[in-house]
Amino acid sequence: MERLVTPLGLGLLVLASAMLLVYYRYEARREFVQLQSLRNDAADLRTEWSRLQLERTTLSDPRRIEPLAQERLQMQRPSGAQFQVLKP
Amino acid sequence: MSGAQLPPTAPGRRQFAIGLIAVMLGALMSRAFYLHILDQDHLQAQGEKRHLRTQALPAARGIIYDRNGEPLAVSTRVETVNGEPEELVLQREQLPRLARLVGWDSAELTEELERRACRKEGSKHIFLKRNANPTLVRRVEALGIEGIFTEPGERRFYPAAEIPANIVGFTDLNGKGLEGVEYVYNQRLAGSAGSERVIRDNHKRTVERVEIVEEARNGEDLYLSIDRRLQYLAMRALEKSVRNNGARGGSVVVLDATTGELLALANQPTFNPNDNKDWIVDHYRNRAVTDTFEPGSTIKPFTIAAAIDSGRFTEQDLIDTTPGYMMLAGYRISDARNYGRIDMATIIQKSSNVGAAKVAMELKAEQLHHMLTQVGFGERTSSAAPGEEYPFPGEAKGHLKPYREWQRVEQATMSYGYGFSATALQLAKAYAVLADHGRMHPIRLLRLEPGSEVPTTQVITLETARIVQGMLESVVAAGGTGTGAQVPGYRIAGKTGTVRKAHDGGYEEERYRALFAGFAPASNPRIVVVVVLDEPSGHYYYGGEVAAPIFAEVTAGALRLLDIPPDRPLELLRMASAGGKS
Fold first, then answer.
1. With an 8 Å Cβ cutoff, is B578 touching chain A?
2. Which ipTM score applies to this complex?
3. pTM of this structure
4. Which one from B75, B225, B251, B297 is the annotated catalytic residue?
């Protein structure tokens, strides 16, 4: 009886380690795939972000704002008489 | 068991075992023969379906921002849509829809595909659309056509277009910097590409990603010292003036007087980096740093500073400029009119060549030369860390002869800015010394982190710098040559210059360069502005007439945008009471 315990125990350990190996292989693959998809998301977001930045910059371009302010909003640069200087 | 006699075995068992092995070996060999020789197509086809290969992981190029975080150069991901003609021609009914998406004429596309499909040698594959945006790519993929594959890439956009083009520069189609900041800081902007192992099919489609060999490192973002708003302001004022005065070109440089940061640098003519159709090589040049000219009267303040610093003169000393001209070694130096006996301030205010020359003749050549080199003439405007490039590609150092080689007449002409050459940026740097109370700092193109220490060198004594600042204020005040540079509410200091252009060893009669260099507010200078207008061909060509108004426009806008309070508010109050009704 006692002669059987050691080989049986070792056998079980080998089996367990084999199962674990399979499991972690699978896990590694799954996480790599997830990493890839997140990486793609990151690249997409970066693209989107740079597109939005370009858009914002285009919209806030002084060459666009200046005529808009002057014509649509009737804004004008204050002349000397309209300045008020406040002493701190 | 070892070494023991083998037990007797049944006869024939050995022969049986050997025979069995021989049969199995034969079976294996014939199978190998079949696969390799008779049916090689099958394996080859299977192999082609999946190659394990290493491909590059592209790194995103860094963004170039202005000092306030406004992007000046941005890369976006684009994709190139490619096609395999042999497969595409088999799906004729899909072609019109594909053609519409990628912007081809349907008949033309079919014809081109057929031509390429029949091609015997060389690559057959065809670029259907370069620089396609991701949305378009998704729509092409949604058609479900066989024989289409995409390749990722990057495209650089310059949202401010031509406004900062001479500083920012541009990249080639592969994203490598060719000019300006894109060129100088290419390494930092580019980052480094990584690599990954993937399994691809014979359509070059990635079937499976296996592992990442090396992570890609994205490029670094850069923050320039440039302020997009000031850049726009300078460009607009310069462009308008170049047009109105029929000038060949010009430059405007705006510096932060206390740090040496470059806030704006505009050139005319320039180019639009987004549109490579009408590029003219001559327009790429950043002429404010590559083109040198004789700085003329704008140098007089440094002559006077050298004179006072030497202890040979005080500001009250009178110089006799009668009769308005002088002869020196057969060379005539003359003023616009006879100013008589005048003090140092008046030499500057009226821009007297005779006065400046007479002062310079009393100095040692070495003293004048020392002053000019100390404020940066004949040298690069910026410093670079070891292994780093200087921020301005193609920068000219200008020409300043060693004083031992000066002849007497040269010493006189140097005093009013003839006989050596400088760039607009060098002139701005030199004026920053006067503006920042005699302290010199290298020009910077990258934004300083707030609160960082700026290394400076005192090159003109504080006292002398104060005196010269006062003289430069008188130039812009009534009676000076630079009244056109006035800005309501602010004390302005500056100097005009009108220089005959040198040509073939002589000077041209009718070709001038109009200059204005100055700073504001004079009570505590914050910005330095230099204006150069090349060959104004209209009725007006004096620095005070054409360059000073550009200075006034740029300075007024810059002081407002940078929230610098007026140092002469009473003037505004007077204007308010004078025009009380408004």
1. yes
2. 0.75
3. 0.82
4. B297
